[in-house]
Every structure is written in C-alpha cells, then in structure tokens.
Amino acid sequence: MIKTVELVDGAARMIDQTRLPTEKVFVDCRTIEEVGHAIKTMIIRGAPAIGVAAAMGVSLGADAISAEDFDGFYSQLEKKCDELAQSRPTAVNLAWGIDRMKRVARAGKDLSLPALKKRLREEAQTICDEDIAANRAMGSFGQTLIADGNNVLTHCNAGALATAGFGTALGVIRAAVNAGKKINVLANETRPFLQGARLTVWELMEDNIPVKLITDSMAGYFMQKKQVDVVVVGADRIAANGDVANKIGTYMVSVLAKTHNIPFYVAAPISTLDLSLASGEEIPIEERSADEVTIINNKRMAPEGAVVAHPAFDVTPNHLVTAIITNKGIALPPFTESLKKLAGESANP
Amino acid sequence: MIKTVELVDGAARMIDQTRLPTEKVFVDCRTIEEVGHAIKTMIIRGAPAIGVAAAMGVSLGADAISAEDFDGFYSQLEKKCDELAQSRPTAVNLAWGIDRMKRVARAGKDLSLPALKKRLREEAQTICDEDIAANRAMGSFGQTLIADGNNVLTHCNAGALATAGFGTALGVIRAAVNAGKKINVLANETRPFLQGARLTVWELMEDNIPVKLITDSMAGYFMQKKQVDVVVVGADRIAANGDVANKIGTYMVSVLAKTHNIPFYVAAPISTLDLSLASGEEIPIEERSADEVTIINNKRMAPEGAVVAHPAFDVTPNHLVTAIITNKGIALPPFTESLKKLAGESANP
Predict the structure, then answer these.
(1) Is A170 an 8 Å CB contact of chain B?
(2) Which pLDDT value is given to residue B1?
C-alpha cells in the first residue's frame, strides 16, 4: 500500500490526494509552511493523517530554526505552530499533533538544539508509527461488531489514506476481512470533494475488498432495500458527550441509519477525542470555498454568481451513535462516562 | 423564460438540458424517434415535460405515416408509440401522453388522414397548454401551504424546465412569490445529473428568486440548523396509496424532513397519478448508466473498473408525505381516498 505520509530526507512526503485515483503524484513538503499548505488544500486530509503530518511539519519547522538558546528556539517554534494550527479548524488531531510536539520540545529544553531537533524528528516518527498501531487496535476491537456477510456503508474516506496507514473505519473493515469475514462495502461518493469515489473505492479495490460506489443521495435507497447491515464512519472531532463531527453528510447517514434500525459506528483514535468540549455544538465547523461545490474538473456546473453554502463538516448527536470504536476499546452510551474512562490521561486536552 | 419544449415548423424544439446552464442550445426533433432519443438522453427530462414531448413525438410520428386507411395508419402509429414508451420507465406521464394521443387518434378514425394528423397536432399543443395551466393551478393551491419568509428546500428540478412551463414544485414557489411572500430556496444539487445545480438554480436566478445551492449531503445539516421550514418536490409517478416515485435522493430528504418535523409536500399534476398501482413497490425504478456517476465533465472520478449502482429514482412511502399538491386541489392522508376523489376520471388509467 502506498504510504499516505512519511518523513524522508528532510521532507514530509505525501501522496497528493487531490489527484487520486487517476494520478499517483507525491509531494515533498520541506517546510512547516508547505505542510500547512498541503493540509489546507487537502493534498493530505483525514483527521489522523493531518495529526501525523502536523507533527512532521513541526519537526521540519524546528529543523529550520537558528537560535541562541531554548527560549529563542521555542518562541520561534510556537509562532510557526500557531500558524500551522490555523490550516484547518475542525479536526482536533491537528492541534493534538502540534501540542504533543510542543510538549516534547519543552521537555527537551536542556538538550542541545541539534539533539532537540533530533528528538522532535523521532517524536514525529513515533506519532506516525503509533497511528498505525492505534488503527490496528481499533480494527481488532471494531471487527467484533461486524458479522460475516455484512453489507457495510461508509461515508467519506476514513481509510489508510486518512491515517498513517490501515485506516479507522476502513481499518475496522480490513480487520473484519482479515478475520475471515466476507464483507461488502457501500461507499458514499461524498460530495463535494468525492473522497468516497476517489479514495475509498480506490484503496478498497487495491485490497480486493468488494466495494460498490453510490451517490450520497442513494444511501437511503439502499437502507430501505435492506442492503445495508451496518454503518461505520470516521471522525474529525468527538466531544466529551459523544457528539461526532465528521465530513458533511455523516449526520444525514446517521439519521437514515436510526430510521432503518441500522447500527451506526464511529471509529476514531483517542487523539480525536476533545474532552474539553462538553458537546458538539462547540466544535468549529469549517466553511470551505463555494468553488469546490460549483466547479467540477475545471467546469462550472452552477450558473455564474450562484449563492452556495459549503459547510465541510456536520455534527452527529450522540443519541444517533451506537458505539465509538477507539484504539483503547469500544465506548458505549452514555459516552460522557465511557469515553472519559477509555481516554484516561491520553485524550485532549 | 425560455420554452422547455414547443411544436414549431414540424419539429419539437427543446432546450438541451444536458448543456444548461453554461450553454443555451436548442434541439429540433423532427421524428418520433428523435423525440425518444431526446427523452432517453435527458435532453428533455421531468415527468410533465416528458409527457408533453411524448405527445408532440406522437404527432410527428403520425405526420410521417403514409397509409391507405385508418387501420393501416393506426397499426403503424401504435408500433411507433410502443417504441417511444420504452424510452424511460419511471415517469408515468410518458405513457399518459402517448395513451391520450392514441385515444384521440382512435376517436378520429372517421376523419381523413390529413385531418386526423392535424387533430393530433392540435391535441399535442393542447396537452402542452394544459400542462402550463395545471402548473398554475397547482401553484395557486400549493402556495397557501407556504408562509411568508419560509426557507423552502427542493430536490432535483421540478421547475419550468421539468414541465411545459411554470413548474410543479417550483411553480408552487413561484406562486408564493407572486402572492407577495418572501421565499428563500435551498436547492439540493442532485447527484449524479446535477439537475439542482444546473437547472433549479439557473431558473430561479432568472426569476430573481433567492436560491442557495447545497450538496445533497447538506440537506440534513441545514434542517438540523433550523434553516429549512418546508420541503417541496415533484414526482415522476404517484401510486394510488400516495407512495411517490421521484428522483433518487427524494426518499432521503423525506426521512430527514420527518425527523426534523418539517412538512414534506409533493407537487404533481393529476397526469402523474397512476391509480392502477396499489403502492410504490410496483413502480419500475430505472437503472441508468454507471458512467453518469463515475464520469463528470469527461473526467473519470472513480477508479477504472469500479462497481457502481445507479438507481435513478426512489420511492417515498406515503407516511412520509404531508400532502400532495395537484392541479385539482390538495390531497391529504389517507391518500387512497383523497387522490381518487381529486383524480375523478382524469387520472391513469
């Protein structure tokens, strides 16, 4: 499997996800600013992958700093980090990755600058490795919820491409397949960015996991026809009460699942929890450019001057979530207790 | 306003709806076969517009027939009609328009062939005129359900372009605006064919009715935010019990509306009723080409070889429908009684 992101030769190397599946192009980000740009333009996307890329970005940012002492170094680093943190607002993993790197920097304040930079490089690599391990753990827990022969619907791409590898929602599906279960996936295309059509279908086909592509508007149709047994999606941020911010359209899927008595599972690492927020109402929802809705493949589909809305995420309230699959185990309602317990000390903040 | 379809100079002239809004190109169909092709390829679409175009097609088909007597004429006409009836399966208006023309032909069996052909031409024009009148009547009835200041969500295009003029769902909105009400429209883009983005937004902008374009996946988000007061959609076929076949995604909208306690109205002329079908389960659902999902503006979005589903319609069960607005009045549940009463003798069959 192609690596989503890796630290090589002084660069964070990413597969350009805006050009998949027709073109496989890698982008080398050599500065923290270039990493920020890659996150903003969705060359790399997916909450966990953004967290990993951000950590690598902080390491690259640190490498570029010349300073007399730790305080000089750290004040420059903090400034760069603040800017990187602005690249996308909804996924909490961005802040999580940056904060963890800043903590490591502060803990290493007595090291020489070269040693500290090396320490930060190692930490970025650790975060990357831990993400894959977390996804495999999530898969082990989550696959117990998926039965042999199940038709699993997913939205957006919560796969290997949304993480350092293996995936969250698709990691659960992969683990079920690895456990010998026959799984059929229904992939919502996920307008406007088409992460489902472009990324989910591509990575499942690479793994020979049967997948059928549908438009987002067909999810209800296939549930009504009893062709969906379970829904598994990822998350960009989960509040303390279990409200889940995820790609726009996830809320719609959760309502449809509830109406059809279909379990609705969310798969996300502990780093996606934001226990500082009591509920999803506090999660900032990114508004992206109208052009992403109106222009497809360089052709304008809507009339010039059309008024367009583009909230990139929505919030699924906890009462529509059957369970949250994490790398520490499965959280069941009431989530305020179960998430807190699973998170222990490792969650945000 | 541009005419959707009109009978001129021995042709059914249509605006090519596959090329709107960027190009305004007219297509002259000079034979019944060309009309069938235009319906199949969605140069013209929308149940009422298909009914009108079909009637014009039958007239063109009749014009081309050479025969010794009525029986020879009618057997040729019937064959052409059977073929035309195959062009799209879901909208009942197609069969309705054809059957009405055949009835008129049979009623004129004692006319000379030139007089009969003239009679059929006149009937096609009458069907076209009646459609506009029906939409205006529907608008008058329907606008009473829309309050000043309402945010109205619609799916697909049930507008002037889906009819001979004025529109069904958009006709209700137009009538509300004409009655002095301030209305804001939310238009679902309606994947895969994007009738919302391309057609609904265009025709509302032409009429200066405020409209905001959203992806289908955002409908739930805006309902959750209390930015939708009422839903109005069109229909391709309505069964005797009030089950409604309409563009894929309509069912999803109806479930979301129910969940958010938002009225869900269907606007359709009596010609869209098919009282021969007890329920929506009997309505044939068209499966269209996978390419319409995977290829946008000549660029493939999903990987080569991806498995794709493309049901072009879905069925909204009657319990999710608040009321059905027709040109004869508003039908309320239970629909089996109310529709039968409104339809009187004019419905299918």
Answers:
(1) no
(2) 74
Please give the average pLDDT of every successive group of 10 residues along chain B, which has 349 residues.
Answer: 90 97 96 98 97 98 97 98 95 96 98 98 98 98 98 98 98 98 98 97 97 98 98 98 98 98 98 97 96 92 95 98 98 98 72
Q: Which of residues B75, B105, B136 is at a domain's end?
A: B136
The count of domains in chain B is 2
CATH number of the domain that residue B214 is part of: 3.40.50.10470
CB contact under 8 A, A21 and B303: yes
If you ran DSSP here, which 8-state letter would residue B159 be given? S
Q: Tell whether A81 is within 8 A of chain B (Cβ).
A: no
Q: Which residues contact B72 (CB under 8 A, 6 or more apart)?
A: none
A-B contacts (CB, under 8 Å): 172
- Tell whether B19 and B48 lie within a shared domain: yes
Give me the domain span that covers residue A84.
Answer: 5-136
User: Given an 8 Å threshold on Cβ–Cβ distance, is A190 in contact with B252?
Assistant: no
Same domain, A88 and A154: no
Nearest to A159 by CA among A131, A127, A125, A191: A131
**A274 catalytic residue (yes or no):** no
Contact of B214 with chain A, judged by CB distance below 8 Å, is answered with yes
- Point out the residue among A215, A216, A293 whose CB comes nearest to the CB of B213: A293
Q: How many CA atoms lie within 13 Å of A156's alpha carbon, on the beta-carbon side?
A: 29
Residues from chain B that touch A257, judged by Cβ atoms under 8 A, are none
What is the distance between the terminal CA atoms of chain B, rounded to a whole angstrom? 33
Domain-ending residue, one of A101, A136, A171? A136
Q: Are residues B88 and B226 both part of a single domain?
A: no
A118 and A145 share a domain? no
Task: Say if residue A97 is in the same domain as residue A162.
Answer: no
CATH number at B33 reads 1.20.120.420
Scan residues 276-305 of B and list those with Cβ closer than 8 Å to A: 293-294, 296-303, 305
| CB nearest A213 (choices: B197, B259, B293) | B293
Top residue of B157, B184, B217 to mutate, by most chain A CBs within 10 Å, is: B217
User: Do A130 and A163 belong together in one domain?
Assistant: no
Both A65 and A188 in one domain: the answer is no
With CB atoms and an 8 Å threshold, state whether B293 touches A189. yes
At A111, list the tokens: 């090291």
Query: pTM for this structure?
Result: 0.96
Cα–Cα distance for residue pair A117/B124, rounded to 1 Å: 80
Cβ of B252 under 8 Å from any chain A Cβ? yes
| B226-244 per-position pLDDT tens digit | 999 999 999 999 999 999 9
Whether A281 and A264 map to the same domain: the answer is: yes
Cα first-last separation, chain A = 33
Which residue matches tokens 């690895």?
A178
| CA-wise closest residue to A312 among A231, A245, A219, A243 | A245
Task: Average pLDDT across each block of 10 residues of chain A; the chain has 349 residues. List them in order.
Answer: 90 97 96 98 97 98 97 98 96 96 98 98 98 98 98 98 98 98 98 97 97 98 98 98 98 98 98 97 96 92 95 98 98 98 73
Collect all residues of chain B within an 8 Å Cβ-Cβ radius of residue A215.
191-192, 216, 248-249, 293
